[in-house]
Amino acid sequence: MKFGKEFASQMVPEWQRAYMDYNKLKGILKEILQIKQQRNPAMAATPEGGLKRKMTMYRAFSGLTRRYSSKQRSEKGESGEEQVILVNAVERGEEGEGKVSGSSYETMFLMSSDVGGEYEVIFFKRLDEEFNKVNRFYKANVEEMMNEANSLNRQMDALIAFRLRVENPHHPTAFNWSPPIPTMPTTPATPGKAAARMDAIQEVEMSSEGYSAEGNEEDETGINVTNPTSNASNNSHQEIEKKSKKISSTPSPLQVLEHVKINISLETPRSTLKGMLMDSNHKELSFSKEELRKAEGQLKKAFIEFYQKLRLLKSYSFLNLLAFSKIMKKYDKITLRTASRPYLNMVDNSYLGSSDEVTRLLQRVEDTFIKHFSNSNRSKGINTLRPTAKREKHRITFFLGFFSGCSISLLVALILIVRAHKIIDKQGSTTYMKTMFPLYSLFGFIVLHMLMYAANIYFWRHYRVNYPFIFGFKQGTELGYREVFLLSTALAVLALAGVLANLDMEIDTETKDYKILTELVPLGLVTFVLLVTFCPFNIIYRSSRLFLLQCAFHCICAPLYKVTLPDFFLADQLTSQVQAIRSLQFYICYYGWGDFKLREEKCTNSNVYHAFLFIVALIPYWARFLQCVRRTFEEKDVMQAYNGLKYFATIIAVIMRTAYDVEKGMGWRVLAAITSAIAAVVSTYWDLVHDWGLLQRTSKNRWLRDKLLISHKSVYFTAMVLNILLRFAWVQSVFGFQVSFMHRNALTTTVACLEILRRGMWNFFRLENEHLNNVGKYRAFKSVPLPFNYDEDEDKDE
Question: 465: which residues sit within 8 A by CB, 6+ positions away?
């Protein structure tokens, strides 16, 4: 693989604009090469780089190679090479939003009078711009990491004191700062926990000298990153006196608990209800083990996320340094000059090339995490901080091909059997379409949605949309399109096999009943799928199943849980699966009332069934509406209120359409048409403008947006037109359009499938817009709430 492609593949997607523009610089070098070849035809006939090698060989054998005289060496530089460029550092104050004051670098090209020299001047100008951009971005992020390290250090101070207070409430240091006598714990504990507890006690006892003094060095309680600064040679006596005074006035590290409160993050129903009843967002410490466990869990997540940030930043530095080295070597190769050495020396001496803060922070975070969160087990701690990359497995490819072939074969067999036996023309076909078809259509909806999701993942990866970060998947556990496609084809095989088993429409002449074994096949399939979904064992992608169930539970319990993107994204998917949820309702009705014995649908005429038609259809829209309500009050965002009104309008439209399906009548039809039209227009506008970010008049891409991942603009216009058409698919149900060769249930299922296809298309552009927003703000990390809040932090917030 060429370096340009490898460089692009290893970029942090949200930082693409901050990397060196390798392709642009490479394009300038190609222009320089073309100009040199046009003005010097002999160079065009010689392969690139071949001329330099041949000239070197001729010089070696002709005696032209000799040492330069002192005068020539002074003209060409210390190394005896001809001086091509001069690189100067210029101090520029660029303080402001997103900018950091510091040195900028300017390169002076000394041979602009040569052939193509004006293009080489442009090359070095662009090269300086790229390097200064990279250097400033790296320095700004390193400073941000240092500030976050200091914050984590204070959190560790509080956690160690808190841990000591909870696990050793009768220890002398918990109340008095007189030098205690080390004692072994009286309660039995594992060696790792006992060692960690004794280390915590010793750390608190030994850190009093440097707890609040200026310039305290790194201790083992955290990741303090400040460096000691002393001038002992000038006034050592004064510093000793100052230090002694500070030590005498330094409070006990345990006294930090007097200035710390627990952060209450409203993420669960319990914390939400407590937050509504309490005036403050913080509460006093009660020193319970439950609080300690939650604080340790939060801080552990914060350390893991911080470590990932440092690794990405280190990778950013390495990749850019390699890119500058590659482009300068390419420049030397094309122009036959020796400018790479002085420029790369400047790069090595710059902040980007010489700073080692990130490397030192990585080591300190590892030591702290291993000691305090892994019971001093290094392998366990490193495995947590550096999860292994997910490897592609050959058995997935094998089973994917196997189930795909089986599903296609079963589908072809089903079509041939129906046509050969002329099942559609038989008397029982109408009964089959009213009873068995709605049962199996549930699997069709699920399989189609999974196939669309697999296609979404494929195109997200193709266009480098960082969907694992956006959804918040744990690294290494996210499913790829192959895994999702495998699950969908496996489910399709089960469903098609069940359909073939139920094709016998003959009634037993003696009992006038259908075969109970075959009639229970759909219920058995649903039971099997539910058992696999809720299976607690580590089989069939357990982490992904648990993540899905957690998000679904958050949707059901809205607005008691904090709304995250996976939660409302799943709720949006459920709004497109209303017909599938109604199929589940029909399962309960069909098998609960015993209609499956005679393939009847008597239960569908009951008032209870009709009432649940309303309730079931409103569940996903109501959950989405409540999520918008919570985000409106929590984020103070008026756009969420408007979004909630959109879903409320959809709720009214669904009620009217369901009422028309149950009651019929011209009045209900008019109300259903008016409310559905209003909801469709509002939803379509919201899809295109807010969810997809399109239809921007002032955009560089007319009626689209400034940044587009797909180069063909026609794709976006086609998607907008399809979204509008599919949004109005409800017209069929309201105005009763029928197709002569399709049963009413088949037509309803087809319309529901069109909505699933629309949702799959919506998914791609919705996540594309979210990804571009993250890219615009260089947002590549999750914000993890910290467990403790200091009093001075509260004052700053006020």
Answer: 13, 459, 709, 767, 768, 771
CB 286 within 8 A of CB 304: no
Q: For residues 153 and 177, state if they share a domain.
A: yes
- Identify the CA nearest to 498 among candidates 549, 447, 425: 447
**Domain that residue 491 falls in:** 394-776
- Report the C-alpha gap between 26 and 331 in whole angstroms: 9
Two structure tokens written together for 358: 């990130």
Does 199 reside within a domain? yes
β partners of residue 790: 260
Same domain, 420 and 371: no
In this structure, are residues 273 and 766 in contact, taking their beta carbons and an 8 Å threshold? Answer: no
Residues 796, 370: Cα–Cα separation, whole Å: 33
Q: What is the pLDDT of residue 357?
A: 92
Q: Is residue 792 included in any domain, yes or no?
A: no
For residue 510, the model assigns a pLDDT of: 58
Specify the pLDDT at position 652: 96
Structure tokens at 546: 């648990």
Note whether 378 and 405 are same-domain residues. no
Residue 686 host element (H or E): helix 666-686
| CB-based contacts of 732, cutoff 8 Å, min separation 6 | 747, 751
Strands (E), 479-583: none
| Spatial CA neighbour of 167 closest among 194, 137, 207 | 194
What is the spatial distance between Cα 483 and Cα 473, in angstroms, rounded to a whole number?
Answer: 15
Tell me how many domains the chain contains.
2
Give the count of beta carbons closer than 10 Å to the beta carbon of residue 319: 19
pLDDT along the chain (798 residues), means of 10: 85 91 91 80 52 46 42 46 77 51 78 76 91 94 93 88 78 44 38 47 43 41 48 47 45 67 68 59 65 87 92 94 93 87 91 92 93 89 84 87 95 90 78 89 96 97 92 87 96 94 64 71 94 92 94 92 93 95 93 84 88 93 96 92 96 93 87 93 95 92 92 95 92 76 86 95 96 85 81 53
Tokens of 219: 């201790």
Kindly provide the b/e burial profile for residues 401-433, where b requires at least 16 CB atoms within 10 angstroms of the residue's own CB: eebbebbeebeeeeeeeeeeeeeeeeebbebbb
Count of beta carbons in the 10 Å neighbourhood of residue 548: 14
- Is residue 84 within 8 A of residue 109, CB to CB? The reply is yes
Residue 788 DSSP one-character state:
E
Q: Does residue 4 lie within any of the structural domains?
A: yes
For 367, list phi and psi in degrees, rounded to 5: -60, -45
